[in-house]
Amino acid sequence: MTEQAQSERGIGPEYLVAGRYRLRSKLGGGGMGAVWLARDTLLHRDVAVKQVTTTAGLDPDEARRVRERTLREGRNAAKLTHRHSIAMYDVALEAGEPWLVMEYLPSRSLAQAMNIADTLPPLEVAQIGAQVADALVAAHAAGIVHRDIKPGNILVADRGRELGTVKISDFGIARAKGDAAESTNGVITGTPAYFSPEVARGQDPTEASDVFSLGSTLYTVVEGQPPFGIDSDSIALLHRVAKAEIYRPAKAGPLTETLLHLLEPDPARRPTMAEARDALARVAMGGDGDVAHLVGSPVYSADGTIPSWAHRSTPLPPPHRRSKIGSTQAGLPAVPQSTPLKNVPRPLGKLQWPPRPTPPAPGAPEPTVRDQVVAWAPIAMGVMVAILILAVLVAVVVLLAQP
Ligand SMILES: Nc1ncnc2c1ncn2[C@@H]1O[C@H](COP(=O)(O)OP(=O)(O)O)[C@@H](O)[C@H]1O
Ligand SMILES: [Mg+2]
């Protein structure tokens, strides 16, 4: 439903959804629909409600299928209870439209955190990754594929008793958001920057594609940009994802090897979610770290405090980097490729990763000719030394060869 149609129906603060959930304020709006803070008037608790799909403009049969699919997804997500995932409470039908009713976590997302911190330290990212992966292991065991793992769907409590607690949201919602067709048929829904290569090529998302998207998400928060770079043109980005050629991480430190393993082009070479979780826990806690020690704990910085980006008192700057984070989109065309993914070299292989352009700091002067000469000097010296060594070698060989 469009914003205009919603406001015509009076959907806004004080609107009562399904006779039970009173809307209070908008928490945000992703690719489709908005998320509202609402009051459950029956149980007297705060909840987050979200209309993920609409039946407006569909014929009655299609509308019924969309409704049923959303209910199915709601039921699926409701099977999952985990300390690091947002609980699904209810699917409410309001004028025939399904709304998801979820646990409300006063929080900021990792996408918002990146507006404060640019990049997060590898040790914090490893803890977050291990906790989210633990929730995803439980989801996969219950037969739920997340389908839309990205920084915007990882929430970190920003106040109260739960401060610093990490929870993943929007389980399986990307499927409910799609058009009426049951099978995707070359049409994909999700967030292009975090798609796995096989999903960009048109395959249905699987547990292994969740592993890749978790890798992309963690890569993004540690590096400050997604593994396939930034492009406001979703189709161009989708082509790069389908080719599976990522930029090598430069700031991931002890997390580098684990990230590259999660980002293997071939789904068969990726770790399972449980293996990914254990590897992330080892990075977070050193050698023999066990995820059991991390589950239920808030995220800590190296100095043992909860990082300042997680505190509500740390102000959020305007979302100047929203295009980098990416929002969920429906109806993207798949981009098949001729090279099978098992033939794409591993990220650790011979591929030459294009160097990342480092933008000059704002106000920094243009490099002068002298700066450029200084920058090239070590290479020139190296070449000269090599020529000298070669000359000496040739001279020795010539001398020895004389009778
Ligand atoms: N359960 C929740 N509790 C608190 N805030 C939430 C919850 N779910 C979503 N939000 C907030 O609403 C914003 C928009 O969510 P959403 O529509 O899913 O968009 P996206 O996932 O693309 O960021 C999120 O970034 C988050 O800040
Ligand atoms: Mg979301």
TrEMBL record:
<dbReference type="InterPro" id="IPR008271">
    <property type="entry name" value="Ser/Thr_kinase_AS"/>
</dbReference>
<dbReference type="Pfam" id="PF00069">
    <property type="entry name" value="Pkinase"/>
</dbReference>
<dbReference type="GO" id="GO:0004674">
    <property type="term" value="F:protein serine/threonine kinase activity"/>
</dbReference>
<keyword id="KW-0418">Kinase</keyword>
<keyword id="KW-0808">Transferase</keyword>
<dbReference type="InterPro" id="IPR017441">
    <property type="entry name" value="Protein_kinase_ATP_BS"/>
</dbReference>
<protein>
    <recommendedName>
        <fullName>non-specific serine/threonine protein kinase</fullName>
        <ecNumber>2.7.11.1</ecNumber>
    </recommendedName>
</protein>
<keyword id="KW-0723">Serine/threonine-protein kinase</keyword>
<feature type="region of interest" description="Disordered">
    <location>
        <begin position="314"/>
        <end position="367"/>
    </location>
</feature>
<feature type="domain" description="Protein kinase">
    <location>
        <begin position="21"/>
        <end position="283"/>
    </location>
</feature>
<feature type="transmembrane region" description="Helical">
    <location>
        <begin position="375"/>
        <end position="401"/>
    </location>
</feature>
<keyword id="KW-1133">Transmembrane helix</keyword>
<dbReference type="InterPro" id="IPR000719">
    <property type="entry name" value="Prot_kinase_dom"/>
</dbReference>
<dbReference type="GO" id="GO:0005524">
    <property type="term" value="F:ATP binding"/>
</dbReference>
<keyword id="KW-0472">Membrane</keyword>
<feature type="binding site">
    <location>
        <position position="50"/>
    </location>
    <ligand>
        <name>ATP</name>
    </ligand>
</feature>
<dbReference type="InterPro" id="IPR011009">
    <property type="entry name" value="Kinase-like_dom_sf"/>
</dbReference>
<feature type="compositionally biased region" description="Polar residues">
    <location>
        <begin position="325"/>
        <end position="341"/>
    </location>
</feature>
<keyword id="KW-0547">Nucleotide-binding</keyword>
<keyword id="KW-0812">Transmembrane</keyword>
<feature type="compositionally biased region" description="Pro residues">
    <location>
        <begin position="354"/>
        <end position="365"/>
    </location>
</feature>
<keyword id="KW-0067">ATP-binding</keyword>
